[in-house]
Amino acid sequence: MNTNVRLKVAYKSPQSLVGEYTRSVGQGGATLQTRRSLPLGTRFTFELHAGGVPRPVEVLGEVVQVEPREERNYLVTVRYGASEDRTALDAVLKRIFAAQEQEGLRRFPRLPLHLRAVEATPLSPTFLVRDISRGGVGLEVMAPTLPRHVRVGTPFLLEMDLTGGSLLLHGEVVWTSSVPRKNATEATPGFGATFGRLRAPMQQRLDALLALESLPPAPWKARVSFGMDAVTRMP
Question: Where do the PilZ domain residues begin and end (predicted)?
């Protein structure tokens, strides 16, 4: 039996490709439904294609679990591994940043990033980091409304552990929104925060994250703080 499986996935844009890349890799793996069982250890190569990008981004994986289901189907769990060739991924990132710089709408180009974050406050909702740049970050709130303490001007801190060390990004909330997204029937609360002046080590770690070189261990997670809690934890 073939122990090498190659799957091709197409995306409309480099942004959507990187968004799915960070979401999937951040989870550490994927569960697929198949018509046949696969031996444990079967190697996977996911080819991620996007319009305007000549080479696909490849994500490597290995089958670590196979679960029989009804109607002769199987749930196959694939754990992702590291790819040594970054050529295609770097080309996609370069294309995203170049397009945003040409638009001139933002001071810093932003990276699509799907990263769940939590707050230490009891009963607080889950937050989802949607994009990040050298200047700030955008988040959605997985709840019907924004928490009351998330207001414009509120001190903000985002923390995560990267392979290169802890990253602490401090700043303040600069906008909030509860407007429905395009083609959405319900509003998704969200907000944006700008970063303050970062020390050199933190800036270097942020740049490594923006290049997808220094990533959190899977499953990706982060912590957010607001108000005095953020101020007391700021580096």
Answer: 4-85, 106-211
The pTM (predicted TM-score) of the whole model is 0.85
- Provide the 10 A C-beta neighbour count for residue 117: 19
Instruction: Give the list of residues 6+ apart from residue 32 with CB closer than 8 angstroms, or none.
Output: 75, 76, 78
In the chain, what are the domain boundaries?
4-97, 108-233
Contact 58, 21 (CB under 8 A): no
Angle at 200 between CA 98 and CA 152, to 5 degrees: 70
Assign 76 to helix, strand or coil: strand
Strands 4-11 and 43-50: parallel
**Alpha-helical runs (H) found in the chain:** 14-27, 87-103, 200-210, 227-233
Which residue type sits at 167?
A: L
Considering the domain 108-233 in this protein, what is its CATH number? 2.40.10.220
CA dihedral (57, 62, 9, 20) positive or negative: negative
Structural contact between residues 197 and 205, judged by C-beta atoms closer than 8 angstroms: no
Average pLDDT over residues 129-140: 95
**Measured distance CA(140)–CA(126) in Å, rounded:** 9
> How far apart are alpha carbons 134 and 126 in whole angstroms?
23
Q: Provide the CATH topology of domain 4-97.
A: 2.30.130
- End-to-end Cα spacing for the chain: 54
* Cα separation, 59 vs 71, whole angstroms: 30
Q: CA-to-CA distance for 45 and 60, rounded, in angstroms? A: 5
The tokens 């009351």 sit on which residue? 148
User: Running DSSP on this structure, what letter comes out for residue 71?
Assistant: G
